[in-house]
Amino acid sequence: MTDAVINFFQNITIQPEVSIFIVSLLPILELRGGLVLATFMGVPMIKAFAICYMANVLPVPLILLFIKSVFKFLKRFKTFAGVLTKLENSAMKKSASIVKKQLVGLFLFVAIPLPGTGAWTGAFIASLLGMDIKKSFIAIILGVLGAGIIMITLTYFIPGLFGMEYSF
Fold this sequence. Notes:
Shape: globular
Distance between the termini: 26 Å
Mean pLDDT: 88
Radius of gyration: 17 Å
Helix content: over 70%
Number of domains: 2
Oligomer: single chain
Number of helices: 9
Largest sheet: none
Order of helices and strands: HHHHHHHHH
């Protein structure tokens, strides 16, 4: 999937910065995908990190504040009810580490760049668990910072990891 996204954004005629912003804004790919794309597009590290970080953090307050209401509304429609229930169940299965450690668990969940973790899922789980919004937001933005540091290390400081030479 990552290859398809990279190929798509490399072949369209928008600025690389816009491409990495869009990828970092999307669930699943988030900052992790944006930073990988940035390396392929030759975006300097500091610029790439700033763009990817801001895009990944941008939807978090909206998710924390409104996701439960949006889901409640959409579940009234048969078309969405099953999918949303599955999504909630999947998120709750991933929430075990967060429930035990609360904000530290939320931070670690977001910071460790594995599939199915990240700001979107972290915010969704925090909302479902009824965690304090301000504290959850802080844990998530710090988690995104941690994920960013890990991904910068993997993408910009390990020469040839993705078969590319990088600019700083």
